[in-house]
Amino acid sequence: MINKRTINLAKKVCVTGILLGATNVAVAAEGDIKTSFYGSLRLGMDYVDAGTADDAANGRDFLSRVGTKASVDLGNGLTGLAVVEYGIRGEDGVNFKQNNQPGLRQALVGLKGGFGTVTYGSQTLLWHKFVRGSYFSDGLDSLRQGSIRDDDFLQWQRSSGNWKYGAAIQTEGQDGDSFDQYQVAVEYQSGPLKLQTAIASDQRGDNTGSLYGVRGWYNVSDNFTISAFYHLAEADFDLYGGNSSGNVKLKSTASGNDVGGVTSCTGEERSTAGLYGKWKSGKNQFHTRYAVNACDVKGDVTSIKVEYVRQFSKTFKLWASFEQLDNDESRKPTSGQDLSEFQLAARFDF
Fold first, then answer.
1. 159: closest CA among 219, 215, 114, 214?
2. Which end of the chain is flanked by fewer CB atoms within 10 Å, N or C?
3. Are 196 and 215 in contact (CB under 8 A)?
């Protein structure tokens, strides 16, 4: 029997096919439209140990995606841009399965010129691009503030010499607010040093708090890089309900922790601070990070994570990682016990 999910998925596939077909026709007719299809499959398994009887190995999708990029030369130094990208995982937020629907990750249009690049739509936020990008192959951060992507964002970015600037506003929700949030970001790079900062200001509802972030990088050598970051959310910054683990929903039933994200502490001032290091030699890479997520009332969560990556080619790699998440004693009565996660997975980019 053909169910509703199958019908909806078939509709999306047909629409995507029509759009790609129309794009190909445009290429033939105009001669100045460039399109490319891309994808990244990231599949493997993890084992979550929370000290319970149901601890087990699980199949896992680590943010696989497919997408299409397009650009058109508009003349006078202007370029039109468009991106449509879907995540492959299904409704459970962990795996993609037969007859499950993919989820939209990005859908944007833009204009690029001497003024920089302006984009509008569902897209990766400046906050993520400048101060919160993931350090590990799974594309997740176990301790993080805010969100990776959101809808209805108007963003501007421009590079000039050693500097890169960004600004954004969000018009969303039909909730009586003209703008739900503002974001501003700055980056400075000189030689082996790169410094980044960003601010997100909550303008939705009665709460108008802010989220602040700084991050620094230093290339000690061609093979060794270190990084440090600090994020601080005011108590009334509640756009994303405190710390966000995005669309990762797999949980340990005993601990209450999201695998890939700690339990939120909405309504409290909260900070995340960490140190990261990367060492590479040939086709081998090692990543490590120590970080602390601190909440005024719920207490702290400490994370130690290590990862080994074997890069077989530019497009194919395997990784193995281990993370230990420890709740302090004040947090355990409400947020559960400590947990650990082991990952073993492959990534194929095309």
1. 114
2. N
3. yes
Paired strand residues for 347? 42, 317
CA 193 to CA 177: how far, in whole Å?
40
Number of other residues whose CB lies within 10 A of the CB of residue 17: 10
CA dist 255 → 235, 300, 332, 335 (Å): 24, 14, 8, 6
Bridge pairing between strands 163-170 and 149-160: antiparallel
Confidence category of residue 206, pLDDT binned at 50, 70, 90: confident
Residue 223 contacts residue 279 (beta carbons within 8 Å): yes
Give the end-to-end CA distance of the chain in Å, rounded to a whole number.
Answer: 34
CATH number of 40-60+125-349: 2.40.160.10
pLDDT score recorded for residue 298? 81
Predicted TM-score of the model (pTM): 0.82
Condensed to tens digits (0 to 9), the pLDDT of residues 181-193 reads 999 999 999 999 9
Integer-rounded Cα radius of gyration of the chain: 21
- Domain-wise residue ranges, the chain: 40-60+125-349
Q: Which of 161, 228, 221, 213 is nearest to 183 (CA)?
A: 213
β-sheet bridge partners, residue 301? 293, 327
Tokens (6 digits) for 24: 């190909």
